[in-house]
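In this supplementary section we document a worked example of the pipeline. Step one takes a protein sequence of length 204 as its only input; no multiple sequence alignment statistics are reported here. Step two produces a three-dimensional model, which step three serialises into structure tokens for compact storage. The input and output of this example are shown verbatim.
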Amino acid sequence: MEKVIRILLVFFFCVLLIYIFKEISSYHFKKKKEHFLTEKKEKEKYDRPIQKLEIPANKKILPEKKEKESVRTEITVVKEDGCTYVWVVDRPYQPAVAEKGHYEIIHHEAITHLKDIYQEYKTYYFVREDETYITVRDYEGFSAEEYFNSLPEEFYRYYYKITKEIVGQELVVDREAYDEKVWVVDQPYQPAIEEQGHYEKIGC
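The serialised model returned by step three reads:
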């Protein structure tokens, strides 16, 4: 009987070892497959053909315009009357002058104002029969009824009003201080001046 139990135990351990070995092999195979697929995706991601970069029209670098040079123009014309006329320049062509300047940092101080701080109080009015009165401001432990009972009989009623009093001020910031970068023009833009002149008759 003991021999049979030993054989069964050996068989059980063998089956268990085979199962564990299969699980480990399956796990490693799965990991290798996932690694291979990840590398493939990365390769496909970076091995795409280079696409042509479209540059918006407003970002394209345009060739600089060459200003016309100031050259004295001499034009000779023979008109129908048989006379020769020469173009005389009164004011030569002048090219446009580009704007020149520089940036400056301008500091703007904060905008502030003072705000009053109010404290509310109860002010009691103790009225006499002739409608004159005395006032007492409410304070800690004050009892209006006890105070009224301690007054002479000529005081026949009392009431109170809520009053406000300025007890201080606080600084309120309406706009924080900031620095502003501004363009300062040293030389303004001047448009080109076209050539002006007239024809002079030099002979017929």
